[in-house]
Fold this protein.
Amino acid sequence: MTSVWALAALWLGLALIASLLSIWFRISTALSEIVVGTIAQLIIGAVVGAAVLGTDESWVKCLSGIGAIVLTFLAGAELDPQVFKLKWKEAAAVGFVSFALPFLACAAAAHYVLGWPVMPSWLAGVAMSTTSVAVVYAVMLEFGFNTTEYGKTILAACFVTDLGTVVALGLIFAPFTMKTLVFLGVGVVVFVVLPWLTPRFFRLYGGRPSELETKFLLMCLLGMGALATWADSEAVLPAYLLGMVLAGTVGKDHALVRRLRTLTFGLLTPFYFIRAGSFVSIPQLVAAPAAFLFFLVVKVGAKIIGVYPVTRLFGSPTREAMYTTLLMSTGLTFGTISALFGLSHGIIDQGQYSSLVATVIASAVIPTVIANAFYLPHHLMPKPQPEGILPEHARAAPPRPASTVAE
Amino acid sequence: MIPADRMPSRPDEEACDGTGLASIGAVDRSGARRVDHIDPGRDFRRADRNSLVGVVAGNTIGLTLSEWVNFLAGFGAILLTFLAGTEIDPGVARKHFQFSLSLNRVEQEIFP
């Protein structure tokens, strides 16, 4: 196990460096982890060898995958049903246009400008249309927007965009089958039963040192994730839906959410974000930057043309609208998943894959840096609490008896 | 009997097996933790239950010990032992040091 512990210490050391960088440079931890992953792969790859970072080790993949799933679940659990009822039109409109325009624009640009064949062009459109729930949620959490109506609306819009991506990927490349129907059928039952069952189950058996709540939620998330991948869908999709349906119960249990965040941000997501960053090959990008830069410009341009007017239409001031637009321009999970799907099914080649993945990961960093540097809507940030009282997004609630789980 | 593919490949990997019971047992042996916060009986019962479920599952549905399972198990052992260490109250440890030492020696004699 020596090599495993050494490798784990290396990854968590990188995560620590990323966290310090994010504090010093006032950037999102998710972004600094991605950048640290890219630079670490470059330096370690050049000095010792590309395999040293062990991105393909099964336990690194495991932690990274669970990180993406739990992070998406937590993002879904932030959705306040009341806010969603109030703002669903805005979330649906922003989410839909954030998917549709970049999808069509990037597919057309790949085909007509870069000369890619039809199917690779569609795949490029799908990969570029995504918005990263993971990045957006991490940013929301750091600035406290996750507790505001504004933040909850953006998170709901992200879900709509990613739903569009999954549907497009399924319709174009992996036609829906009986497996899809089974997945949907089981999903409906689970999503109806869980909001009823979970609070009762937690009230009966929760609040003990065995952390039954975490085990139960992880079992549901990973079980539904397995079913989703079996049905050729994505594991993070049911995770988001589970988060949504449990937002009114689990989402209101601040102590539980806080403990899940410790697990997620302390252990799991560093592996997810650093691994994502390590996939970017800087030498390849420097050697052939055209496709990467082209897709990045088209993607962000299409998002701006599509999302900005819609947010303005719903009454957002200029600064806020631009912030929303840039956050909706981020991509990570679904973008890389789509690109990998294309590569593994022979739809795109290695060069096209590298360009797409690099663009997706760059789009996780560049729009967010610009948004936080120039368009941060300070007026929407939660007001500072009196000394000694932490804001809700950072609060560590005291130990709670089992009977206090909100139903 | 443990099947060959489920045996730890090296002696030092044995720490990955029976994680909960081994670590919680180690904590109890110290004899110096704050018993007002943790009930040893309950901890043993929980660890026992986990181990028992592992025995049954391993012999019925054939759980495989893949690399990531070994990692999580080992990591769990390290974290659990760390948490147990943080529970030790230096004052109580000093006060009951002789007792802990003698308890440990008796245990070594019984379970060498």
